[in-house]
Design goal:
Helices cover 37% and strands 22% of the residues. The chain is an alpha/beta fold. The structure holds nicotinamide-adenine-dinucleotide. Nicotinamide-adenine-dinucleotide binds next to helix 9 and helix 10.
Length: 501
């Protein structure tokens, strides 16, 4: 049963939030179906209930998406579609504080971060991809024919169909809209499966879609887990035309197996174990500041973050000392406190995983420069999944802590002696998502950047993102590129039309 109810407003301001399915423009009936608890990672308190989708709910969502595609949404002109997406962007901005509260409560991320990154990017993803698609030029080719009249070929982009969007918990609104924005701009309809840890903003976006006048069925949300739950039901569904996924590499393998049935297309943004390389000719203040952000932002839960830092030997001791001072000065605290720089990890389960690496680092013989444990928090936060920012040195490159993605506020720092050596060591990983280089030598910057196995390499910066550029990973960090016109390669079919003149 579906009814057109709204979500309770202002999550975190009293009353438990209910995250229900959003199918065909309506929220699920609270009285039906299984639910699971939603826990705020900052406090460990249950703050809401999430309605878990069964196979039949997922089927209804996919059917609604198909009907919208064949019906009202498919009949809109490109211009009409883009105007609706601008309204969605404005709708997110108009309800900025609600999105901010919901995102922060779900993830524990500080307001100071989400206010500047997650929520504005959530709105921008609709505007920028509407702009991109409106401005796409079509290629044409004139050819000779035996009768001399010739023929004209031209390429058109048509929507791929119903797209499944499976999302992680680290940047829930930002990463979901990074997929939903281009998918809808290209004329597809979507069924979104948010992470079970962070259901709130995807659910809230349903209201914004309705307020903007987006036809029912264009944007659908099903909640639940991965295997034997909504994630698997959705990716196995035969009427889904393409699957776009952000998450762990192992989950990507499982989804790829599901996508093999029916030869469905996939776009994957997966894990990373990204290097930061600090040359002795860098501006050290910038390198310290940038490395601090790339290691500790969002409590280290950023796929593009740096977990392996390589420092030119002459700078090594000073760099480690200054990074330590910076890490120890970070302010941990309630996410709503604007002075807070570091929130908790997303869940107790994830904290157990990160802690197991903190323990492993000791077993593998690391020197703990700072951190390595659980911080003392005030009583109202004591039940949260807090962890200390941590820096290690002294491990060989084949230590598990140096090879495996941890996804916490931690890094290993090791010295290097020359350029070829550090390139080889930085590339000695199964991943290839991002890299950060710190050098004032422009030739070196170009030379090293092009040799690194990374979908994106930053020089003297980190997390600068122009949404028109290609984004994606090499090796086991992903398949395909999204961003700007690159997104059209996944979200549309390119057809050739040949007209005899
Ligand atoms: P995850 O793979 O555990 O889960 C992601 C989503 O997949 C969730 O919605 C989950 O319910 C679903 N899922 C799990 N198993 C499934 C299955 N068998 N079938 C269908 N769906 C399934 O990832 P996470 O822990 O939420 O996110 C952290 C990971 O995401 C890290 O590895 C990080 O590097 C990666 N990440 C990558 C990027 C990128 O752009 N490359 C961005 C953000 C996060």
């Amino acid at each position: 049963m579906l009814e057109a109810v709204q979500q309770p407003r202002s999550p975190g301001s009293g009353g438990r939030r209910q995250s229900r399915q959003f199918i065909d423009g309506a929220y699920g009936d609270a009285a039906t179906g299984r639910t699971f608890d939603q826990v705020a990672p900052a406090t460990g308190q249950v703050v809401g209930q999430v309605q878990e989708a069964g196979r039949d709910d997922v089927d209804r969502a996919v059917t609604a998406a198909r009907q919208a595609l064949n019906g009202p949404w498919g009949k809109l002109t490109l211009e009409e579609r883009c105007q609706l997406l601008y309204k969605v962007a404005d709708g997110i901005t108009a309800r900025f504080d609600e999105f901010l509260a919901a995102e922060s409560e779900d993830t524990g991320k500080p307001y100071s971060l989400a206010r500047h990154i997650d929520i504005p990017r959530g709105a921008a993803n609709f505007k920028i991809f509407a702009d991109t698609v409106r401005n796409v030029a079509s290629k044409s080719f004139e050819m000779a024919t035996p009768d001399g009249a010739g023929a004209l070929n031209y390429a058109v982009h048509v929507p791929k169909g119903v797209v499944a969007v499976v999302c992680p918990w680290n940047l829930p609104l930002l990463l979901m809209t990074w997929k939903v924005g281009p998918a809808l701009a290209c004329g597809n309809t979507v069924v979104v499966k948010p992470s079970e840890e962070t259901p709130a903003t995807a659910t809230l976006l349903g209201e914004v879609m309705n307020e903007a006048g987006v036809p029912p069925g264009v944007y659908n949300v099903v909640h639940g887990f991965g295997p034997d739950s909504a994630g698997a039901f959705l990716t196995e569904h035969p009427d889904v035309d393409a699957i776009t996924f952000t998450g762990e590499t192992g989950t990507g393998e499982a989804i790829m197996r599901a996508a093999a049935t029916g030869v469905r297309d996939v776009s994957f943004e997966l894990g990373g174990k990204n290097p930061g390389i600090v040359f002795s000719d860098c501006d050290l203040d910038k390198a310290i500041e940038g490395t601090m952000r790339s290691v500790f932002a969002n409590c280290g839960q950023v796929c593009l973050g740096t977990e392996r830092v390589f420092v030119h030997r002459p700078l090594f001791d000073e760099f480690v000392e200054r990074l330590k001072v910076g890490a120890e000065a970070l302010t941990l605290g309630h996410p709503t406190d604007e002075a807070t720089q570091l929130g908790p990890l997303v869940s107790e389960v994830h904290r157990s995983k990160v802690r197991s690496y903190y323990d492993l680092a000791g077993q593998e013989g690391a020197t703990v420069v700072t951190g390595g444990g659980i911080p003392q928090m005030p009583s109202d936060l004591a039940g949260g999944s807090w962890i200390q920012p941590t820096i290690w040195t002294g491990l060989p490159d084949d230590a598990r802590v140096v090879r495996e993605e941890i996804f916490g506020p931690c890094c290993h720092v090791s010295p290097f002696d020359d350029e070829d050596e550090v390139i080889a060591r930085a590339n000695d990983t199964n991943y290839g998502l991002a890299a950060a280089l710190w050098t004032e030598n422009v030739s070196r910057a170009h030379r090293v950047a092009r040799q690194l196995d990374a979908g994106i390499t930053w020089v003297n910066s980190w997390f600068l993102r122009d949404l028109r550029t290609p984004f994606g990973g090499m090796k086991q960090s992903g398949i395909g590129r999204e961003g700007g016109e690159y997104s059209l390669e996944f979200y549309t079919e390119t057809k050739n039309i040949c007209i005899k003149l």
